[in-house]
Amino acid sequence: MNYIDGFERTVRCYGGETALVTASGAERTYAELDRESTGLANAVHERIPERRCATLALNGIETVVSMLAGQKRGRGNVQLPYRAGVDELVRMVDDADVGALLFDDANADLALDVAERADLDLAIHAGDASLAGGRVVSYDEFVGAAATERVVERADTNEYGVFYTSGTTSRPKAVSFDQESMWLGATQVVMEMSLEPTDVALVTTPWYHMVTADAWILPHLLTGATLVIQPTFEPEEALELVAAHDVTGMLAVPTQLNVLADRQADLGLDIDTLDYIRTGGAVVSARLVERAAEHLTENVYNSYGMTEGGPNLAYAHPEVQDEHTGTVGKESYAWELRVVDSVPPDEDPDPEAVVEPGGTGEILARCDGMCDGYLNNPEAEEDLFVDGWLRTHDVADVDEDGYLYIVDRVDNMILSGGENVYPQEVEQTLLEHDEVEDVGVVGLDDEHWGEVVAAVVSTSGDIGADELDQFCVDHGSLANFKRPRRYVVTTDELPRTDTGTLERSTVEEKYFSAVRDGGTQAEGENTT
């Protein structure tokens, strides 16, 4: 079964019910959402029948429409991260053979820069600003002129779409999924969380993330629930939306949960309808669960996933949080997980070397809901699977009851505010500064963000933290959340092995131990 088959069943059953509500008050019923997505599918197919459409926009009605339209026309939508730099985005759209770019007012300048440099046939503007002309067309006019009752022609593919993520090379990789995988992922969420048509779910996390799409938007649309859409996360507005729309569920990363609990403690809004929260992407502490229970809801689901495997590999249901604090739970429906002896990233783990309860190792996973692979990247794809198992690169502890606890990334990924940051990408950017001789980047624990990016810069020149941060801003290829928040500038030669590998643990201990222990050793700090 394909996801779009499930959505069409929802339209038949709940066509007159509200599917989407935005923070500004715009609404769509399921029947209206169906017609609008069909119109976009037909309009795009008429202009670029053999190419994909990408979307660069904040959370909104048009982003959901584009997700459905890509499936209807058989050429999946490319979900672009609006926090990426223009250089990254141009590489993404060209790599995915994107012929049309749908964008909103908030991303207009960025989208027009991409359109100038990428191989696009047209740009579709969904917004109020006056931008029509040249290759730019109005979304309303573009969709309004197309047939909306049925898809006129469908490509001979089963694509859902393309998600982009950073990989071991520190360059974004295109992860492709088919519609059957997305249907299975959405169905897993419906089963794990017992979603109902009467649910009202708040969308606050960026739609382009796999977890927002396949663990939140698509499952709720599959059941006939209502989605309340916030363009970007703002805690007070999020709580007001919960109160105003009788929201029953929300998705929030741990950093957001902390802020929401703090704001609700101050505001005391009537959010009694809030029944469940799904979280993940960072450690869920006992204190966080307690604060969420006190100020938000007792029903917190901790979960584990990844772009290549989907967001639903494992679940920790609310009832296990007390005895297994911090766990991501056990394998989800239809998934098989193994924790095996860890090996370096450039070696293949043995799927048969399963660790005993109480042990630590790398998670391997398999399920029909796995990705189809990397788009146009066969070399990276060879490293993605081991004897039919998806390699996660995540290291986990397994307790005596079989619950999993994420320890670290095999390749030292930094998780800052739920976003993935790879040290090498930051290092490569800073090394382009004329005065920088060497760089070491590590992640430091942070109460607000989970982790923050910290950099040690070796130089014989006269540069400081402010200049380095401005260089990252001006560079254009480094997304804002990847910029270091703490710097140490030194004349020291950074510690490396005899093969040239940076000794990150030594860097962290030598230069940031005082910061880690509550001191102020870092020579310069970026707080923007």
UniProtKB/TrEMBL annotation:
<keyword id="KW-0436">Ligase</keyword>
<dbReference type="InterPro" id="IPR025110">
    <property type="entry name" value="AMP-bd_C"/>
</dbReference>
<comment type="similarity">
    <text>Belongs to the ATP-dependent AMP-binding enzyme family.</text>
</comment>
<feature type="domain" description="AMP-dependent synthetase/ligase">
    <location>
        <begin position="7"/>
        <end position="375"/>
    </location>
</feature>
<dbReference type="Pfam" id="PF00501">
    <property type="entry name" value="AMP-binding"/>
</dbReference>
<feature type="domain" description="AMP-binding enzyme C-terminal">
    <location>
        <begin position="425"/>
        <end position="500"/>
    </location>
</feature>
<protein>
    <recommendedName>
        <fullName>AMP-binding protein</fullName>
    </recommendedName>
</protein>
<dbReference type="InterPro" id="IPR000873">
    <property type="entry name" value="AMP-dep_synth/lig_dom"/>
</dbReference>
<dbReference type="InterPro" id="IPR045851">
    <property type="entry name" value="AMP-bd_C_sf"/>
</dbReference>
<dbReference type="Pfam" id="PF13193">
    <property type="entry name" value="AMP-binding_C"/>
</dbReference>
<dbReference type="GO" id="GO:0031956">
    <property type="term" value="F:medium-chain fatty acid-CoA ligase activity"/>
</dbReference>
<dbReference type="GO" id="GO:0006631">
    <property type="term" value="P:fatty acid metabolic process"/>
</dbReference>
<dbReference type="InterPro" id="IPR042099">
    <property type="entry name" value="ANL_N_sf"/>
</dbReference>
